[in-house]
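Hi support team,

I'm opening this ticket because the web form for multi-chain structure prediction keeps timing out on my end. I have pasted the exact lines I submitted so you can reproduce it. The total is 616 residues across two entries, so I didn't expect it to be a heavy job. Is there a limit I'm missing, or should I split the entries? Thanks in advance, R.K.
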Amino acid sequence: MNISTSNLTLGYGDFIVLKDINVTIPKNKVTILVGSNGCGKSTLLKTMARLLKPMSGKVVLGDMDIFQKPSKEIAKELAILTQSPDAPPDLTVFNLVKQGRYPYQSWFSQWSKEDENIVEYALEKTGLSDIRDKKLSELSGGQKQRVWIAMTLAQQTEIILLDEPTNHLDIKYKIEVLDLLKHLNQHENRTIVVVLHDINLACRYADHIIAIKDGKVYAEGDPRAIVTEKLINDVFDINAKIIECPLFKTPMCITYQNLTI
Amino acid sequence: MKSLFVARKGRLSFIYEKRSALIFAVSMLICIFSILLSLSIGQKYISMFKVIQILFDGSMGGDSLIVNTIRLPRTLVALFVGTSLGLSGAILQGVVKNPLAAPNIIGITDSGSVGALIFLTLFTDPKNNALTTSIFYMPVFAFAGAFAAVLIVYLLAYKKGVTPYRLIMIGIAVSGAAKAITSILIINGPVVFIKEAQLWITGTIYGTNWTHVKLLLPWFLILFIITLIYTRELNVQNLDDCISVGLGSSVEKNRFLLMILSAALASGAVAVGGGISFVGLIAPHISRKLTNSSFGNVLPLSTVVGGIIVVISDIAARTLLFPLDLPVGIFTAGIGAPFFVYLLLKSQRALRRGF
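Hello R.K., no limit was hit. The queue was backed up. Here is the completed structure from your submission:
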Protein backbone atom coordinates (compact mmCIF):
# COMPACT_ATOMS: atom_id res chain seq x y z
CA MET A 1 0.00 0.00 0.00
CA ASN A 2 1.46 3.34 -1.08
CA ILE A 3 0.77 6.67 0.51
CA SER A 4 1.41 10.00 -1.18
CA THR A 5 0.14 13.55 -1.22
CA SER A 6 -0.78 15.63 -4.21
CA ASN A 7 -0.85 19.45 -4.14
CA LEU A 8 -1.67 19.32 -0.47
CA THR A 9 -2.29 22.70 1.17
CA LEU A 10 -2.79 22.67 4.92
CA GLY A 11 -3.66 25.27 7.48
CA TYR A 12 -5.87 26.42 10.30
CA GLY A 13 -8.55 29.02 9.54
CA ASP A 14 -7.00 31.48 7.08
CA PHE A 15 -3.48 30.61 8.09
CA ILE A 16 -1.64 28.42 5.60
CA VAL A 17 0.97 26.13 7.17
CA LEU A 18 2.05 24.06 4.18
CA LYS A 19 1.49 24.81 0.50
CA ASP A 20 1.33 22.46 -2.49
CA ILE A 21 3.05 19.52 -0.87
CA ASN A 22 3.77 16.58 -3.18
CA VAL A 23 5.52 13.75 -1.39
CA THR A 24 5.51 10.01 -1.88
CA ILE A 25 6.35 7.93 1.16
CA PRO A 26 8.71 5.16 0.03
CA LYS A 27 7.25 1.73 0.65
CA ASN A 28 8.81 -0.50 3.33
CA LYS A 29 11.22 2.23 4.42
CA VAL A 30 11.64 4.42 7.47
CA THR A 31 10.81 8.00 6.57
CA ILE A 32 11.50 10.77 9.06
CA LEU A 33 10.01 14.26 8.87
CA VAL A 34 12.27 16.99 10.24
CA GLY A 35 11.96 20.74 10.58
CA SER A 36 11.88 23.47 13.19
CA ASN A 37 9.04 23.97 15.67
CA GLY A 38 5.80 24.98 14.01
CA CYS A 39 6.96 24.15 10.48
CA GLY A 40 3.95 21.90 9.99
CA LYS A 41 5.50 18.44 10.12
CA SER A 42 2.94 17.20 12.65
CA THR A 43 0.15 18.78 10.63
CA LEU A 44 1.35 16.93 7.55
CA LEU A 45 1.50 13.63 9.44
CA LYS A 46 -1.99 14.08 10.88
CA THR A 47 -3.42 14.94 7.47
CA MET A 48 -1.85 11.82 5.98
CA ALA A 49 -3.71 9.88 8.67
CA ARG A 50 -7.05 11.64 7.86
CA LEU A 51 -7.12 13.31 11.31
CA LEU A 52 -7.12 16.77 9.69
CA LYS A 53 -8.84 17.83 6.50
CA PRO A 54 -6.62 19.63 3.97
CA MET A 55 -7.58 23.07 2.61
CA SER A 56 -6.97 21.70 -0.87
CA GLY A 57 -5.23 18.79 -2.56
CA LYS A 58 -5.45 15.22 -1.42
CA VAL A 59 -3.80 12.31 0.33
CA VAL A 60 -3.78 9.14 -1.73
CA LEU A 61 -3.72 5.78 0.05
CA GLY A 62 -3.36 2.90 -2.39
CA ASP A 63 -5.27 4.28 -5.36
CA MET A 64 -7.90 6.19 -3.45
CA ASP A 65 -8.35 9.62 -1.89
CA ILE A 66 -8.10 8.92 1.83
CA PHE A 67 -11.16 11.05 2.60
CA GLN A 68 -13.30 8.94 0.26
CA LYS A 69 -12.43 5.75 2.08
CA PRO A 70 -14.36 4.30 5.05
CA SER A 71 -12.44 5.20 8.20
CA LYS A 72 -12.40 1.63 9.48
CA GLU A 73 -10.86 0.36 6.25
CA ILE A 74 -8.10 2.96 6.57
CA ALA A 75 -7.51 1.81 10.14
CA LYS A 76 -6.64 -1.64 8.81
CA GLU A 77 -3.99 -0.23 6.48
CA LEU A 78 -2.61 2.72 8.39
CA ALA A 79 -2.09 3.32 12.11
CA ILE A 80 -1.30 6.67 13.69
CA LEU A 81 0.18 7.41 17.08
CA THR A 82 -0.23 11.08 17.94
CA GLN A 83 1.97 12.99 20.38
CA SER A 84 1.61 11.96 24.06
CA PRO A 85 -2.01 10.79 23.89
CA ASP A 86 -4.23 10.59 26.97
CA ALA A 87 -5.86 7.49 28.37
CA PRO A 88 -7.56 6.78 31.70
CA PRO A 89 -4.77 6.05 34.23
CA ASP A 90 -6.52 3.01 35.68
CA LEU A 91 -6.78 1.24 32.34
CA THR A 92 -4.61 -1.88 32.18
CA VAL A 93 -1.90 -2.43 29.60
CA PHE A 94 -3.84 -5.32 28.12
CA ASN A 95 -7.06 -3.33 27.84
CA LEU A 96 -5.37 -0.50 25.99
CA VAL A 97 -3.41 -2.72 23.60
CA LYS A 98 -6.64 -4.62 22.91
CA GLN A 99 -8.16 -1.38 21.56
CA GLY A 100 -5.92 -1.75 18.52
CA ARG A 101 -8.24 -4.52 17.35
CA TYR A 102 -11.21 -2.14 17.21
CA PRO A 103 -11.37 -1.83 13.39
CA TYR A 104 -11.60 -5.62 13.07
CA GLN A 105 -14.24 -6.13 15.70
CA SER A 106 -17.99 -5.70 16.00
CA TRP A 107 -20.32 -5.96 18.98
CA PHE A 108 -20.82 -9.67 18.36
CA SER A 109 -17.21 -10.42 17.54
CA GLN A 110 -15.25 -8.96 20.41
CA TRP A 111 -12.37 -11.36 20.83
CA SER A 112 -11.62 -13.72 17.95
CA LYS A 113 -8.70 -16.13 17.96
CA GLU A 114 -6.97 -13.76 15.54
CA ASP A 115 -7.50 -10.82 17.92
CA GLU A 116 -5.96 -12.84 20.70
CA ASN A 117 -2.94 -13.93 18.64
CA ILE A 118 -2.18 -10.46 17.38
CA VAL A 119 -2.51 -8.80 20.78
CA GLU A 120 -0.18 -11.47 22.17
CA TYR A 121 2.25 -10.73 19.37
CA ALA A 122 2.06 -6.97 20.01
CA LEU A 123 2.67 -7.43 23.74
CA GLU A 124 5.55 -9.76 22.99
CA LYS A 125 7.20 -7.44 20.46
CA THR A 126 7.10 -4.51 22.82
CA GLY A 127 8.23 -6.54 25.82
CA LEU A 128 5.03 -5.95 27.76
CA SER A 129 3.83 -9.53 28.20
CA ASP A 130 4.83 -9.65 31.85
CA ILE A 131 3.20 -6.38 32.86
CA ARG A 132 -0.02 -6.74 30.89
CA ASP A 133 -2.22 -6.48 33.99
CA LYS A 134 -0.56 -3.36 35.34
CA LYS A 135 -2.44 -0.09 35.23
CA LEU A 136 -1.11 2.74 33.08
CA SER A 137 -0.56 4.92 36.16
CA GLU A 138 1.99 2.40 37.41
CA LEU A 139 4.18 2.56 34.30
CA SER A 140 7.27 4.61 33.46
CA GLY A 141 7.23 6.99 30.51
CA GLY A 142 9.13 4.51 28.35
CA GLN A 143 6.77 1.67 29.19
CA LYS A 144 3.74 3.85 28.51
CA GLN A 145 5.07 4.76 25.09
CA ARG A 146 5.64 1.08 24.36
CA VAL A 147 2.01 0.37 25.30
CA TRP A 148 0.85 2.89 22.72
CA ILE A 149 3.14 1.44 20.11
CA ALA A 150 1.81 -2.02 20.98
CA MET A 151 -1.71 -0.71 20.41
CA THR A 152 -0.80 0.56 16.95
CA LEU A 153 0.90 -2.80 16.26
CA ALA A 154 -2.30 -4.62 17.20
CA GLN A 155 -3.96 -2.68 14.39
CA GLN A 156 -1.81 -4.84 12.12
CA THR A 157 -1.27 -2.20 9.48
CA GLU A 158 1.37 -1.99 6.81
CA ILE A 159 1.87 1.72 7.42
CA ILE A 160 2.56 3.20 10.86
CA LEU A 161 2.74 6.96 11.42
CA LEU A 162 4.19 8.30 14.67
CA ASP A 163 4.33 11.87 15.89
CA GLU A 164 7.34 12.45 18.17
CA PRO A 165 7.25 8.97 19.71
CA THR A 166 10.39 9.69 21.73
CA ASN A 167 9.23 12.96 23.26
CA HIS A 168 9.90 13.31 27.01
CA LEU A 169 11.74 9.99 27.11
CA ASP A 170 15.17 9.36 28.58
CA ILE A 171 17.85 8.69 26.00
CA LYS A 172 17.81 4.95 26.78
CA TYR A 173 14.09 4.74 25.99
CA LYS A 174 14.49 6.96 22.94
CA ILE A 175 16.91 4.45 21.46
CA GLU A 176 14.72 1.56 22.58
CA VAL A 177 11.66 2.98 20.80
CA LEU A 178 13.55 3.81 17.61
CA ASP A 179 15.26 0.40 17.57
CA LEU A 180 11.84 -1.20 17.83
CA LEU A 181 10.56 0.83 14.89
CA LYS A 182 13.62 -0.05 12.82
CA HIS A 183 13.13 -3.71 13.71
CA LEU A 184 9.48 -3.61 12.60
CA ASN A 185 10.58 -2.05 9.34
CA GLN A 186 13.40 -4.50 8.65
CA HIS A 187 11.82 -7.75 9.80
CA GLU A 188 8.17 -7.16 8.98
CA ASN A 189 8.47 -4.80 6.03
CA ARG A 190 6.36 -2.13 7.59
CA THR A 191 6.38 1.37 6.20
CA ILE A 192 7.21 3.72 9.07
CA VAL A 193 6.80 7.49 9.04
CA VAL A 194 8.06 9.42 12.06
CA VAL A 195 8.15 13.04 13.06
CA LEU A 196 11.37 13.54 15.01
CA HIS A 197 13.08 16.49 16.65
CA ASP A 198 16.54 15.10 16.93
CA ILE A 199 18.36 15.48 13.63
CA ASN A 200 21.17 13.10 14.62
CA LEU A 201 18.77 10.28 15.51
CA ALA A 202 16.82 11.07 12.33
CA CYS A 203 20.00 10.61 10.27
CA ARG A 204 20.79 7.34 12.01
CA TYR A 205 17.38 5.70 11.67
CA ALA A 206 15.93 7.16 8.47
CA ASP A 207 16.14 5.63 5.03
CA HIS A 208 14.47 8.74 3.76
CA ILE A 209 14.36 12.23 5.27
CA ILE A 210 11.83 14.91 4.39
CA ALA A 211 13.00 18.33 5.57
CA ILE A 212 10.34 21.02 5.80
CA LYS A 213 11.00 24.74 5.76
CA ASP A 214 8.73 27.77 5.20
CA GLY A 215 5.68 25.72 4.28
CA LYS A 216 7.50 23.72 1.62
CA VAL A 217 9.56 20.59 1.29
CA TYR A 218 13.11 21.93 1.43
CA ALA A 219 14.76 18.64 0.53
CA GLU A 220 14.07 14.92 0.65
CA GLY A 221 16.13 11.79 0.20
CA ASP A 222 18.70 9.54 1.84
CA PRO A 223 20.18 11.37 4.85
CA ARG A 224 23.72 10.60 3.61
CA ALA A 225 22.96 12.41 0.39
CA ILE A 226 20.97 15.41 1.55
CA VAL A 227 22.03 16.34 5.07
CA THR A 228 24.58 19.09 4.66
CA GLU A 229 25.77 22.01 6.73
CA LYS A 230 23.71 24.28 4.52
CA LEU A 231 20.56 22.19 5.07
CA ILE A 232 20.96 22.33 8.84
CA ASN A 233 21.57 26.05 8.67
CA ASP A 234 18.55 26.72 6.44
CA VAL A 235 16.07 24.36 8.07
CA PHE A 236 16.99 24.75 11.73
CA ASP A 237 18.57 28.20 11.64
CA ILE A 238 21.70 27.04 13.46
CA ASN A 239 25.30 26.52 12.43
CA ALA A 240 26.57 22.98 12.12
CA LYS A 241 29.63 20.95 11.41
CA ILE A 242 28.90 17.55 9.90
CA ILE A 243 31.07 14.52 10.54
CA GLU A 244 30.49 10.85 9.88
CA CYS A 245 29.12 8.92 12.83
CA PRO A 246 31.85 6.45 13.85
CA LEU A 247 29.30 3.73 14.64
CA PHE A 248 26.62 3.94 12.01
CA LYS A 249 28.41 5.81 9.22
CA THR A 250 25.52 8.26 9.02
CA PRO A 251 25.85 12.05 9.08
CA MET A 252 26.29 13.51 12.53
CA CYS A 253 25.77 17.20 13.20
CA ILE A 254 27.58 19.22 15.79
CA THR A 255 25.49 22.32 16.13
CA TYR A 256 26.59 25.70 17.51
CA GLN A 257 25.59 29.32 17.66
CA ASN A 258 29.07 30.86 17.94
CA LEU A 259 32.42 29.23 18.07
CA THR A 260 33.21 30.98 21.35
CA ILE A 261 31.08 30.08 24.33
CA MET B 1 -4.96 -15.75 29.51
CA LYS B 2 -6.01 -17.48 32.71
CA SER B 3 -7.58 -14.32 34.08
CA LEU B 4 -10.03 -14.07 31.18
CA PHE B 5 -13.26 -15.76 30.19
CA VAL B 6 -13.35 -16.21 26.44
CA ALA B 7 -16.43 -17.49 24.64
CA ARG B 8 -16.23 -18.25 20.93
CA LYS B 9 -18.69 -19.87 18.54
CA GLY B 10 -18.39 -19.38 14.81
CA ARG B 11 -18.09 -15.67 14.17
CA LEU B 12 -19.31 -14.80 17.64
CA SER B 13 -16.71 -14.09 20.25
CA PHE B 14 -16.76 -12.43 23.66
CA ILE B 15 -14.28 -11.73 26.42
CA TYR B 16 -14.68 -10.92 30.09
CA GLU B 17 -12.24 -10.50 32.94
CA LYS B 18 -12.73 -13.19 35.59
CA ARG B 19 -12.02 -10.88 38.49
CA SER B 20 -14.63 -8.43 37.26
CA ALA B 21 -17.15 -11.23 36.76
CA LEU B 22 -16.62 -12.26 40.37
CA ILE B 23 -17.00 -8.71 41.65
CA PHE B 24 -20.13 -8.33 39.55
CA ALA B 25 -21.60 -11.55 40.97
CA VAL B 26 -20.90 -10.39 44.54
CA SER B 27 -22.48 -7.00 43.86
CA MET B 28 -25.56 -8.76 42.46
CA LEU B 29 -25.87 -10.74 45.69
CA ILE B 30 -25.58 -7.55 47.74
CA CYS B 31 -28.20 -5.98 45.51
CA ILE B 32 -30.64 -8.86 45.98
CA PHE B 33 -30.02 -8.79 49.72
CA SER B 34 -30.71 -5.07 49.93
CA ILE B 35 -33.95 -5.52 47.98
CA LEU B 36 -35.09 -8.24 50.39
CA LEU B 37 -34.08 -6.05 53.31
CA SER B 38 -36.07 -3.19 51.88
CA LEU B 39 -39.13 -5.46 51.55
CA SER B 40 -38.78 -6.79 55.05
CA ILE B 41 -38.34 -3.68 57.19
CA GLY B 42 -40.73 -0.82 57.69
CA GLN B 43 -43.58 0.00 60.02
CA LYS B 44 -44.32 -3.70 60.24
CA TYR B 45 -41.35 -6.05 60.26
CA ILE B 46 -41.75 -9.04 57.94
CA SER B 47 -39.00 -11.64 58.07
CA MET B 48 -36.91 -12.07 54.95
CA PHE B 49 -37.88 -15.70 54.79
CA LYS B 50 -41.53 -14.73 54.72
CA VAL B 51 -40.83 -12.06 52.09
CA ILE B 52 -39.31 -14.69 49.83
CA GLN B 53 -42.33 -16.93 50.42
CA ILE B 54 -44.68 -14.09 49.51
CA LEU B 55 -42.74 -13.27 46.36
CA PHE B 56 -42.81 -16.84 45.10
CA ASP B 57 -46.10 -18.19 46.47
CA GLY B 58 -48.30 -15.18 45.97
CA SER B 59 -51.07 -14.40 48.42
CA MET B 60 -50.30 -14.56 52.15
CA GLY B 61 -52.87 -12.22 53.65
CA GLY B 62 -52.01 -8.78 55.06
CA ASP B 63 -48.26 -9.15 54.76
CA SER B 64 -48.63 -9.88 51.09
CA LEU B 65 -50.56 -6.65 50.64
CA ILE B 66 -47.80 -4.66 52.35
CA VAL B 67 -45.06 -6.29 50.31
CA ASN B 68 -46.75 -6.42 46.93
CA THR B 69 -48.59 -3.14 46.79
CA ILE B 70 -46.49 -0.86 48.98
CA ARG B 71 -42.94 -1.99 49.48
CA LEU B 72 -42.18 -3.88 46.27
CA PRO B 73 -43.12 -1.13 43.79
CA ARG B 74 -41.27 1.47 45.84
CA THR B 75 -38.20 -0.74 46.15
CA LEU B 76 -38.22 -1.48 42.43
CA VAL B 77 -38.51 2.22 41.65
CA ALA B 78 -35.56 2.86 43.95
CA LEU B 79 -33.65 0.07 42.23
CA PHE B 80 -34.28 1.25 38.69
CA VAL B 81 -33.78 4.92 39.46
CA GLY B 82 -30.42 3.88 40.91
CA THR B 83 -29.43 1.59 38.05
CA SER B 84 -30.40 4.26 35.51
CA LEU B 85 -28.35 6.93 37.27
CA GLY B 86 -25.37 4.63 37.78
CA LEU B 87 -25.32 3.63 34.13
CA SER B 88 -25.98 7.16 32.92
CA GLY B 89 -23.07 8.52 34.94
CA ALA B 90 -20.70 5.81 33.71
CA ILE B 91 -21.56 6.55 30.07
CA LEU B 92 -21.24 10.29 30.54
CA GLN B 93 -17.85 10.04 32.25
CA GLY B 94 -16.60 8.05 29.27
CA VAL B 95 -18.01 10.42 26.67
CA VAL B 96 -16.53 13.55 28.23
CA LYS B 97 -13.38 11.68 29.33
CA ASN B 98 -13.74 13.14 32.79
CA PRO B 99 -14.36 11.16 35.97
CA LEU B 100 -16.02 14.18 37.59
CA ALA B 101 -18.89 14.30 35.10
CA ALA B 102 -22.35 13.35 36.28
CA PRO B 103 -25.86 13.78 34.91
CA ASN B 104 -26.51 16.74 37.22
CA ILE B 105 -23.34 18.57 36.21
CA ILE B 106 -24.34 18.92 32.57
CA GLY B 107 -27.78 20.23 33.49
CA ILE B 108 -29.96 17.15 33.13
CA THR B 109 -31.23 17.18 36.71
CA ASP B 110 -31.68 20.93 37.03
CA SER B 111 -33.59 21.12 33.77
CA GLY B 112 -35.74 18.23 34.94
CA SER B 113 -36.56 20.40 37.97
CA VAL B 114 -37.60 23.21 35.66
CA GLY B 115 -39.91 20.82 33.83
CA ALA B 116 -41.43 19.63 37.10
CA LEU B 117 -41.89 23.19 38.36
CA ILE B 118 -43.49 24.31 35.11
CA PHE B 119 -45.96 21.51 35.64
CA LEU B 120 -46.68 22.68 39.19
CA THR B 121 -47.01 26.29 38.04
CA LEU B 122 -49.37 25.46 35.21
CA PHE B 123 -51.58 23.07 37.07
CA THR B 124 -51.84 24.51 40.56
CA ASP B 125 -55.06 26.33 41.26
CA PRO B 126 -53.99 29.23 43.51
CA LYS B 127 -57.52 29.74 44.86
CA ASN B 128 -57.73 26.48 46.73
CA ASN B 129 -54.06 25.53 46.52
CA ALA B 130 -54.70 22.23 44.79
CA LEU B 131 -53.56 20.62 41.60
CA THR B 132 -55.99 20.80 38.72
CA THR B 133 -54.71 17.59 37.18
CA SER B 134 -53.12 14.36 38.35
CA ILE B 135 -49.62 14.53 39.87
CA PHE B 136 -48.79 11.53 37.67
CA TYR B 137 -48.26 13.87 34.74
CA MET B 138 -45.37 15.54 36.51
CA PRO B 139 -42.81 12.93 35.34
CA VAL B 140 -43.73 13.71 31.74
CA PHE B 141 -42.82 17.35 32.24
CA ALA B 142 -39.68 16.48 34.17
CA PHE B 143 -38.59 14.10 31.44
CA ALA B 144 -39.21 16.69 28.73
CA GLY B 145 -37.20 19.27 30.69
CA ALA B 146 -34.29 16.94 31.30
CA PHE B 147 -34.11 15.68 27.76
CA ALA B 148 -34.46 19.15 26.27
CA ALA B 149 -31.44 20.20 28.34
CA VAL B 150 -29.21 17.64 26.68
CA LEU B 151 -30.25 18.68 23.21
CA ILE B 152 -29.64 22.33 24.08
CA VAL B 153 -26.23 21.52 25.56
CA TYR B 154 -25.28 19.50 22.50
CA LEU B 155 -26.45 22.14 20.03
CA LEU B 156 -24.72 24.99 21.86
CA ALA B 157 -21.51 22.99 22.18
CA TYR B 158 -21.53 22.12 18.50
CA LYS B 159 -18.85 23.84 16.46
CA LYS B 160 -17.62 21.60 13.65
CA GLY B 161 -18.14 18.73 16.03
CA VAL B 162 -18.35 18.67 19.79
CA THR B 163 -15.39 18.53 22.16
CA PRO B 164 -15.79 17.05 25.65
CA TYR B 165 -14.48 20.27 27.18
CA ARG B 166 -17.16 22.38 25.49
CA LEU B 167 -19.84 19.88 26.50
CA ILE B 168 -18.93 20.27 30.16
CA MET B 169 -18.62 24.07 30.06
CA ILE B 170 -21.93 24.56 28.24
CA GLY B 171 -23.52 21.92 30.48
CA ILE B 172 -22.51 23.84 33.59
CA ALA B 173 -23.91 27.04 32.05
CA VAL B 174 -27.23 25.39 31.17
CA SER B 175 -27.38 23.88 34.63
CA GLY B 176 -26.86 27.33 36.15
CA ALA B 177 -29.56 28.87 33.99
CA ALA B 178 -31.97 26.08 34.94
CA LYS B 179 -31.26 26.71 38.65
CA ALA B 180 -32.10 30.39 38.13
CA ILE B 181 -35.39 29.55 36.45
CA THR B 182 -36.17 27.11 39.26
CA SER B 183 -35.64 29.86 41.84
CA ILE B 184 -37.89 32.29 39.98
CA LEU B 185 -40.64 29.69 39.71
CA ILE B 186 -40.41 28.80 43.40
CA ILE B 187 -40.37 32.41 44.60
CA ASN B 188 -43.31 33.43 42.44
CA GLY B 189 -45.27 30.23 42.78
CA PRO B 190 -48.14 29.57 45.17
CA VAL B 191 -47.06 28.82 48.74
CA VAL B 192 -48.42 25.29 48.72
CA PHE B 193 -46.12 24.13 46.01
CA ILE B 194 -42.90 25.22 47.65
CA LYS B 195 -42.83 22.05 49.73
CA GLU B 196 -43.77 19.86 46.78
CA ALA B 197 -41.09 21.53 44.66
CA GLN B 198 -38.43 21.27 47.35
CA LEU B 199 -39.16 17.59 47.84
CA TRP B 200 -38.87 17.01 44.13
CA ILE B 201 -35.61 18.90 43.82
CA THR B 202 -34.08 16.90 46.68
CA GLY B 203 -35.23 13.69 45.06
CA THR B 204 -37.95 11.49 46.46
CA ILE B 205 -39.67 8.25 45.57
CA TYR B 206 -42.35 8.60 48.25
CA GLY B 207 -45.69 7.26 47.08
CA THR B 208 -44.41 5.58 43.93
CA ASN B 209 -46.51 2.66 42.73
CA TRP B 210 -46.65 -0.02 40.04
CA THR B 211 -47.42 2.56 37.32
CA HIS B 212 -44.00 4.08 37.92
CA VAL B 213 -42.37 0.67 37.78
CA LYS B 214 -44.11 -0.12 34.50
CA LEU B 215 -42.89 3.17 33.05
CA LEU B 216 -39.34 2.95 34.30
CA LEU B 217 -38.51 -0.75 33.89
CA PRO B 218 -38.88 -1.16 30.10
CA TRP B 219 -37.24 2.21 29.53
CA PHE B 220 -34.25 1.17 31.59
CA LEU B 221 -34.00 -2.32 30.10
CA ILE B 222 -34.04 -1.17 26.48
CA LEU B 223 -31.43 1.50 27.13
CA PHE B 224 -29.32 -0.93 29.13
CA ILE B 225 -29.20 -3.40 26.25
CA ILE B 226 -28.35 -0.69 23.71
CA THR B 227 -25.59 0.50 26.04
CA LEU B 228 -24.10 -2.98 26.23
CA ILE B 229 -23.92 -3.04 22.43
CA TYR B 230 -22.16 0.33 22.52
CA THR B 231 -19.66 -0.67 25.20
CA ARG B 232 -16.76 -1.01 22.77
CA GLU B 233 -17.51 2.42 21.29
CA LEU B 234 -17.38 3.85 24.80
CA ASN B 235 -13.98 2.25 25.36
CA VAL B 236 -12.70 4.04 22.28
CA GLN B 237 -14.39 7.33 23.22
CA ASN B 238 -12.47 7.30 26.46
CA LEU B 239 -9.14 7.65 24.59
CA ASP B 240 -7.85 10.79 22.89
CA ASP B 241 -10.01 11.86 19.96
CA CYS B 242 -7.02 11.57 17.62
CA ILE B 243 -6.51 7.96 18.68
CA SER B 244 -10.23 7.14 18.33
CA VAL B 245 -10.34 8.54 14.79
CA GLY B 246 -7.12 6.69 14.00
CA LEU B 247 -8.78 3.45 15.08
CA GLY B 248 -11.52 4.08 12.56
CA SER B 249 -14.32 5.06 14.95
CA SER B 250 -16.99 7.53 13.88
CA VAL B 251 -16.20 9.62 16.92
CA GLU B 252 -18.80 12.37 16.48
CA LYS B 253 -21.68 10.06 15.66
CA ASN B 254 -20.93 7.74 18.58
CA ARG B 255 -20.43 10.63 20.96
CA PHE B 256 -23.87 11.97 20.10
CA LEU B 257 -25.52 8.54 20.42
CA LEU B 258 -23.87 7.86 23.77
CA MET B 259 -24.82 11.32 25.08
CA ILE B 260 -28.43 10.61 24.14
CA LEU B 261 -28.28 7.22 25.84
CA SER B 262 -26.90 8.74 29.01
CA ALA B 263 -29.45 11.54 28.91
CA ALA B 264 -32.36 9.19 28.27
CA LEU B 265 -31.38 7.05 31.25
CA ALA B 266 -30.93 10.01 33.56
CA SER B 267 -34.12 11.67 32.34
CA GLY B 268 -36.12 8.54 33.10
CA ALA B 269 -34.68 8.42 36.61
CA VAL B 270 -35.16 12.14 37.18
CA ALA B 271 -38.75 12.00 35.91
CA VAL B 272 -39.71 9.44 38.54
CA GLY B 273 -37.27 10.16 41.36
CA GLY B 274 -36.52 13.86 41.04
CA GLY B 275 -33.10 15.37 41.63
CA ILE B 276 -31.46 12.41 43.36
CA SER B 277 -27.84 13.46 43.44
CA PHE B 278 -24.43 11.84 43.75
CA VAL B 279 -25.43 8.39 42.47
CA GLY B 280 -24.40 9.12 38.88
CA LEU B 281 -21.05 10.40 40.13
CA ILE B 282 -20.03 7.80 42.68
CA ALA B 283 -21.44 4.56 41.25
CA PRO B 284 -19.01 4.62 38.29
CA HIS B 285 -16.19 5.68 40.64
CA ILE B 286 -16.75 2.79 42.98
CA SER B 287 -16.90 0.46 39.99
CA ARG B 288 -13.64 1.72 38.57
CA LYS B 289 -11.94 1.41 41.94
CA LEU B 290 -13.15 -2.18 42.22
CA THR B 291 -12.12 -3.17 38.69
CA ASN B 292 -10.44 -0.90 36.11
CA SER B 293 -11.42 1.66 33.50
CA SER B 294 -12.49 -0.80 30.84
CA PHE B 295 -16.17 -0.18 30.21
CA GLY B 296 -16.94 -3.85 29.82
CA ASN B 297 -16.29 -3.96 33.58
CA VAL B 298 -17.52 -0.54 34.60
CA LEU B 299 -20.94 -0.42 32.89
CA PRO B 300 -22.61 -3.50 34.43
CA LEU B 301 -21.02 -2.93 37.81
CA SER B 302 -21.90 0.75 37.95
CA THR B 303 -25.49 -0.16 37.10
CA VAL B 304 -25.79 -2.57 40.01
CA VAL B 305 -23.89 -0.32 42.43
CA GLY B 306 -26.21 2.58 41.54
CA GLY B 307 -29.19 0.34 42.31
CA ILE B 308 -27.75 -0.73 45.66
CA ILE B 309 -27.04 2.86 46.71
CA VAL B 310 -30.57 4.09 46.08
CA VAL B 311 -32.28 1.01 47.56
CA ILE B 312 -30.24 1.27 50.77
CA SER B 313 -30.64 5.05 50.92
CA ASP B 314 -34.38 4.60 50.62
CA ILE B 315 -34.43 2.07 53.45
CA ALA B 316 -32.61 4.65 55.58
CA ALA B 317 -34.88 7.45 54.39
CA ARG B 318 -38.09 5.77 55.48
CA THR B 319 -36.94 3.98 58.63
CA LEU B 320 -34.24 6.03 60.41
CA LEU B 321 -36.52 8.85 61.53
CA PHE B 322 -39.75 6.85 61.44
CA PRO B 323 -42.56 7.88 61.12
CA LEU B 324 -40.94 10.66 59.08
CA ASP B 325 -40.49 9.60 55.47
CA LEU B 326 -37.58 11.70 54.24
CA PRO B 327 -36.63 12.31 50.60
CA VAL B 328 -34.19 9.63 49.48
CA GLY B 329 -31.99 12.31 47.89
CA ILE B 330 -30.91 13.45 51.37
CA PHE B 331 -29.40 10.03 51.97
CA THR B 332 -27.81 9.43 48.58
CA ALA B 333 -25.97 12.70 49.18
CA GLY B 334 -25.59 12.12 52.92
CA ILE B 335 -24.14 8.64 52.56
CA GLY B 336 -22.64 9.12 49.11
CA ALA B 337 -20.61 12.25 49.80
CA PRO B 338 -18.69 10.97 52.85
CA PHE B 339 -18.12 7.65 51.13
CA PHE B 340 -16.78 9.49 48.12
CA VAL B 341 -14.36 11.45 50.29
CA TYR B 342 -13.31 8.20 51.97
CA LEU B 343 -12.56 6.62 48.58
CA LEU B 344 -10.49 9.60 47.52
CA LEU B 345 -8.51 9.64 50.76
CA LYS B 346 -7.96 5.90 50.59
CA SER B 347 -6.67 6.02 47.04
CA GLN B 348 -4.37 8.90 47.99
CA ARG B 349 -2.94 6.85 50.80
CA ALA B 350 -2.49 3.93 48.43
CA LEU B 351 -0.60 6.23 46.08
CA ARG B 352 1.71 7.35 48.84
CA ARG B 353 2.42 3.74 49.70
CA GLY B 354 3.57 3.41 46.13
CA PHE B 355 0.78 1.28 44.71
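A quick check on our side: The beta strands of chain B are 4-9, 12-17, 124-125, 130-131. Let us know if the file doesn't open in your viewer.
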